[in-house]
Amino acid sequence: MWRTGWRERLQNLRSLGLELWRDKAGFTGVVMIAALLFMALAAPLLAPHSPADQDLMARLKPPVWSEKGTWNHILGTDHLGRDVLSRVIYGSRVSLLVGAAVVLVAGIFGTMLGLIAGYARGRADNIIMRWIDTQVAFPGLLLALIILAVIGPSLITVIIVLSINGWMVYGRMTRSAVLSVRETAYVEAAEVLGCNSRRVIFRHVLPNLTSPLLTLAILEFARIVLAEAALSFLGLGIQPPATSWGLDVSSGKDYMFRAWWLVTFPGLAISITVLAINLVASWMRLISDPQEREKQFARQMAARGRKHRRKEAAVL
Amino acid sequence: MIKEPFLEIENLEVHFTTRSGIVHGARGVSLHLGYGETLGIVGESGSGKSVTVQAVMGLITTPGEIVAGDIRWKGRSLLGPRGKELLQKIRGKEIAMIFQDPMTSLNPLFTVGAQITEVLRHHMGMNRKQALSRAVELLELVDISAPEKRLGQHPHEFSGGMRQRVMIAIALACEPQLLIADEPTTALDVTIQAQILELMADLQQRLHLSVIMITHDLGVIAQLCHRVAVMYAGEIIEVGDAGDLFDYPIHPYTQGLLRATPRPDEVTERMVAIDGVPPNLISPPAGCSFSPRCRNARDSCCRRPSLVSFGSNRRVSCWCACEAPGVQE
Amino acid sequence: MGRYIIKRLWHGVIVIFGVTIFVFVVTRLVGDPVKVMLPLEATIEQRAAFEKQLGLDRPIWVQFVDFMTALARLDFGDSLWQHRPAMTIVFEKLPLTLELAFLGIGLAFVLSIPLGIVASLRPGGISDRSTIFVSLIGLSVPQFWLGLLLIVIFAVQLRWLPTSGVDTPAHIILPTVTMALPALARMVMIVRSSMIDELNQQYVKTCTAKGLPIYRVVGVHALRNASLPVVTLCGWELIRAIAGYSVVVETVFAWPGLGLTAIQAIEREDLILLQAIVFTVAVIVVFINILMDLVYTLIDPRLKLA
Q: What interface predicted TM-score (ipTM) does this complex get?
């Protein structure tokens, strides 16, 4: 695998791109994520105002298409006169940053532990698995809230707490990947011959692991974005004056009945982001499993056949 | 044996749509079966044997489809909307099927008793008590001891051979006229195989069943079947009386098959394999499908031969046969 | 059977203790209960006297032993906020949370079965694709936002339902729906994919060959086999509802259950009440886990509880 030339890799990428184009949902997801990334990176350029700019003369202004709306504040303003559109744009930074950071930290930690558990087996494996089982048995939001309350919520602590809550899936997946490679006949043969089975395992685990790990990471990313939004909504996540979509929904809900836009746009932003990530994750799952692709193809053909027959029957 | 066909398959074509192309699983298969007859269908994996009988039972699903041909039971078609209605009525009742792998053919979560009685209650309208007592009879019929106790057990509590017996019991529950057996002994140990075959031979005689037996094992054919059809690459290439076909195979493939089969009574003969591999069914060859591997291949083999009668009971699909004496088109 | 239950109970005990001790450590070492209870101008001597009264000046391990012995009596002490026994408060609020969780997840379960089955019968067809599409949306929408939207639509614009609180039976509708929808999205996907897997199994071919009507093949045979992953998910959703989502949903709808109480306890730094809540939730979680294992064995006779 390491020896594929750059030409082959380019070709692989190209065929991957074609696959993506064919799957409209996956393609839409990728495009949306690219747009979001762009929005997050280019926020200072895109946002018409600074998200913290208060304009007490223009409080609770509705979006531009309503009666009292202005082009100055396309999506309206909140109770402090801050521009909703700018806050939505800047909010993407927090969500994407937290998502990426947690996936990295939890992913690296979990994968390492999973590798240790899979290689070492015996005692280390037992301890690690027990630890995972115990942590998994009690789901995280309540504990996360308490920890955050105690150590004080902030961007860093949110990342830490969500990582503590989220590393177990990576651990389990990595461990089972290592174990499944271990059980193969050629590794057994290598061990019998006295080869360093660890190197053999390592060489074969990584290729097996990259695809499902990547899909898992993407799914977790979606979950983390939702989790951070919920924490911020409850007041134990990102704190003002920083901008987070969840935080905006929370402050907006006090004015929900007269200023619907305060709650709607940040929430919409969260939903669209998570939807895009989920679309990409489904597409990835599809392409990494050839059986799934075959089934998908068969279903499309069958559906087309049924449609065709229905049309024929209608004509007759 | 009354020889009027009561199952007729005519020019059956089955396609499977895959990403790599359309697989022609069955290409113009024609067969018929009479009352009380046992027909063996023999061929290698992928030759179309299972596809053919699954088409009879209406078990071809996405990505597969019957695209041409007809299947008739007692003169009435089993295809098309009317045919499907008829099929639903006779499946399990007049025609029954047993499959290759007894491990996965039974629902693991239901008791064996439940799986037998549901057929009885659905097709024969029996109530619970009647169905249970009939189920006991059926288990006795297939030589399962302590039937009352066994009815309450689940499939995982049975061994492979016993599970296949249960499958046979379920198949015979409503006294079908035709039993289709798709490689019923392939997944079993040799000793168990023998037992099951003996059971089937016994039942066939006692109940005057017609049987279609699919197998890749010529020995099974020899033991049970009156007639044999040899399939290759989705088509029937030779069909005739079992003993006769084994003694005088005409098609080169059949000859090759027989030569490749070990025979205990002819120890000195070497086993000869057939060179090459079966063709890819995604783009099946336009001519005779066996010609790439055939020793007698000639120019005429680039056209696809049809089944021609040879003698009173043999039909062969081969240009060589066409030219031999005694052939009638 | 007995041995298995004991093993699971033992694991459960570890979880309960693990969680409770964790909270104990975190709150005692990092939190400061005294600060909450005394006015800001309290002097150092007043503080010290108070600490002594609460027993917080003793070494941590002594506190721990005391804590554990009290735990055995289910005595967490008095809530710092409401000045009455913490467990009493917990028992008051618990039924409301359980009601919401069971109703919500129950609704999701009941709806997911027919929707998932219909989608699985013609994969790639219209009902399948629309089910997947709607589920994806359901999975992507944050639950708190969904609740707020439902309030705006049904309570404000249409005025069909009340906005929050517990007074009338109608009050439970919106919170239940909010609890149910994300779970429904996840469950439908699992029902659908399990059913598709089961419908491809050999025994389904056998059932079809037996001439059984399709509603029996799908609804009795395939469904029973497909239900195992669904039951797993259901139990998991229940647990997450009680230990997680309830906090969010109850906050949005001002539903006075354990979740809302937990948030209020956090705001008021009432660590004693928090410990009691966490302990109770842990016990319930363990209980549900064990219950699920028992349900599996009812469904699948191959599972032996040895």
A: 0.86
